[in-house]
Amino acid sequence: MTAREYLYQAKNLDDYINAKLKEISSLRSSVMSLSSMQYDKILVKGGAVHDFTSTIDSILKLER
Q1: What is the pLDDT of residues 31-43, one digit of tens each?
Q2: What is the DSSP secondary structure assignment for residue 3, as one 8-state letter?
């Protein structure tokens, strides 16, 4: 492995870590903020439900 390849690999890892840190920050801000229900939207039964616990679980997985 040349020095250029090694430095490129280090840069890629740094970019990956920064993206994960940004994702954690975004998830934390969504957990800490209040959101109101929108009653004017059409109700659809079924589908995935994203609640507080799934967001916390995502944060913990990313931090590990």
Answers
A1: 888 766 666 766 6
A2: H
How far is Cα 20 from Cα 33, in angstroms, rounded to an integer? 20
Tokens found for residue 10:
């280090």
* Residue 27 one-letter amino acid: L
The single-letter code of the amino acid at 9 is Q
Domain range list for the chain: 3-40+48-63
Q: What is the pLDDT of residue 38?
A: 67
Q: Which of 32, 29, 27 is nearest to 62 (CA)?
A: 27
Core vs surface per residue 18-33: b (16+ CB within 10 A) or e: eeeeeebeebeeeeee
Look-up of token digits 């994203």: 50
What is the Cα gyration radius of the chain? 18
Q: Are 1 and 32 in contact (CB under 8 A)?
A: no
